[in-house]
Amino acid sequence: MVRETLADYFGFEEHGTDLRTEIVAGFTTFLTMSYIVVVNPDILGVAITDVPGRTSSEVGQMLAVVTIITAAVATLIMAFYANRPFAQAPGLGLNAFFAFTVVLGLGVPWQTALAAVVVEGVLFILLTVAGAREYVIKIFPEPVKFAIGAGIGLFLAILGLQAMHVIASDPATFIQFNPVFAEDPIAIISVVGLFITFALYAARIPGSIIFGIIITTLISYAASAIGATAHPAQFEKFGTPISLYTPASLTGDTAVTYSVAGYDISPLVGAFIDGFSNVDALGFSLIVFTFFFVDFFDTAGTLTGVSQVAGFLDEDGNLPDIDKPLLADAIGTTVGGMIGTSTVTTYIESATGVEEGGRTGMTALVVALLFIASLALVPLAAAVPLHASHIALVVVAVLMLQNITDIEWDNLAHAVPAGLTIFVMPFTFSIAYGIAAGIISYPIVKTAQGEWDDIHAGQWVLAGAFVLYFFVRTSGIIQGQL
Fold first, then answer.
1. Most buried one in 105, 154, 194, 423, CB count within 10 A?
2. Which regions span the lipid bilayer (predicted)?
3. Is the pTM here over 0.90, yes or no?
4. Phi (first) and psi of residue 311, to 5 degrees
């Protein structure tokens, strides 16, 4: 009875899926993104420090609980309202901007930064209901839409290979092959796990990605049990100084343990209200603008790229009813800011669940339920090593490159924006910056070809908005107003 009810509600037959496939897809997505339960408190914890009556450890636990609640709420909305297999949580990059740039760099109280997140979320809700966000995404140039998937694929590849210790940072070349690969058990085990996963996938084994993660995890724990240790150097996440990326043990992940005080998040809930006091209007507006701009185009890019893999896009490259997942994102951001975390976004790791066959909100429901379950248990992020879960990102990255066949490479008006979109995403560690490169270049190249009358006026406006954003973001104007 329950199976039939779920099948009818989520439309399994219409989407060519079934309950087992959706559950496997949900587990896969959760395993690849559950690291956020550990990483988000790690990042925000350096900025949210002065919580009355709480130790730094207890604040970290509170932030983990808030992260879980926010991810669950946003993803449940995605499941039941949008009926899409996309998972949401506080976004990486956005949380780093919140902590390191706004709070630590600009000296803005964390309560005020949370107020900016809430304002951004409310703006998103209003714009989504009015249809403005959907309109903006629809006027993305066609080559940019078709390039987003491949760009995200390369972005995922860098994230995955870095966590697997196959690549490392280098002061001269920025990225290099792990110079101690043969001495690093994480690197060796990760590569073995990756090829096992590819073999399972090539053999069309259902659940191949999740089996690859499990096998790699078991090998990792077995190696750790006999005393293997990871090389600790050169594996910091680019621009994000957090300990999770410099593991001293083989499993390499920091476990989050909970105490009773850690469950009491009342000091964070509603803290944004205090943030509105003594706010400089212009400086606050610039912070909201930056949060808004990055999250808008990160979410738009992720939804478009993952939808391309799932076959959701129409012939014009648009996602039908995109306003529904956008509203889930907007509500998640608003709720997150109200209870104490940074901006919520749709996760590119959703592509792993889609690749496993997830096509409906049932996949998102499974992810949300696993987040809720992790409130009562030690988070699964602490049980599954980062290098094991991120094997899935490399597998999906390879598969997402097939999307470049949709691009008209013999037409420079398509090749230039598409190429820049694909290249800039991984090299700047930003989906939004990749989209910006494509959107700015498109009208310029079209005009140079004498096809200026084919350019939508809104595309010029978008290009101008991105130029303005980069000026605000990089000129020091924000610092000058605070």
1. 194
2. 21-39, 59-82, 89-107, 113-132, 144-165, 185-202, 209-230, 281-297, 362-382, 388-405, 417-445, 457-478
3. no
4. 80, 25
